[in-house]
């Protein structure tokens, strides 16, 4: 097995990301380090490999088909199973706390009915696969909410 050239171990790894060299000329001109770094960044970000095609033409999204009850101050959660770039929460007529992290300080976002719909879509995507929610206080009226998560 060669350590340089289009049949090297590095080129085999990079070929999984469609970043491999097809010839000796390409291998000598392109930086292995730069291409390995790009492959690492693609992998960490969860993006499809450059040459990978989607197995479905269907969009990736999650939506609550019926409103979800918000009836206590105990943390409840919704899990949609993929890293969403954008999440929208609506349908609540009372104060709620939502978060996209289970633990940590300054994670809960207080929302009132006048702030509905609430949508979060930062540059580069939110990358959230779960929403935690609860009432702000026990004395607040029970409410419901709906969630739309988009890849």
Primary descriptors:
Jelly Rolls, 18% helix, 5-stranded antiparallel β-sheet, 4-stranded antiparallel β-sheet, 151 residues, elongated, single chain, alpha+beta
Descriptive overview:
There is one protein chain. By secondary structure, this protein is an alpha+beta fold. It folds into 2 domains: 9-47, no CATH class; 61-150, Jelly Rolls (Sandwich). It has 3 helices and 9 strands; from the N terminus they run αααβββββββββ. It has helices at residues 9-15, 24-29, 32-45; strands at residues 61-63, 68-70, 76-84, 86-90, 96-99, 109-111, 118-120, 128-135, 143-150. The strands form 2 sheets. Strands 1, 2, 4, 7 and 9 form a 5-stranded antiparallel beta sheet that branches.
Which spans of ≥5 residues are poorly predicted at pLDDT below 50? 48-52
- Determine the structural class based on helices, strands and strand pairing: alpha+beta
Q: How does the major sheet shape up?
A: 5 strands, antiparallel
Question: Secondary-structure element sequence?
Answer: HHHEEEEEEEEE
Number of separate helices: 3
The helix fraction, in percent, is 10-25%
CATH topology of the largest domain: Jelly Rolls
Query: How far is it from the N-terminal to the C-terminal residue, by CA?
Result: 40 Å
Principal-axis shape equals elongated
User: How large is the share of residues in beta strands?
Assistant: 25-35%
Question: Architecture of the largest domain, according to CATH?
Answer: Sandwich
**What would CATH call the class of the largest domain?**
Mainly Beta
Look at the structure and give the mean pLDDT.
79
How many domains? The number is: 2
- Extended strand count: 9
Q: How large is the radius of gyration?
A: 22 Å
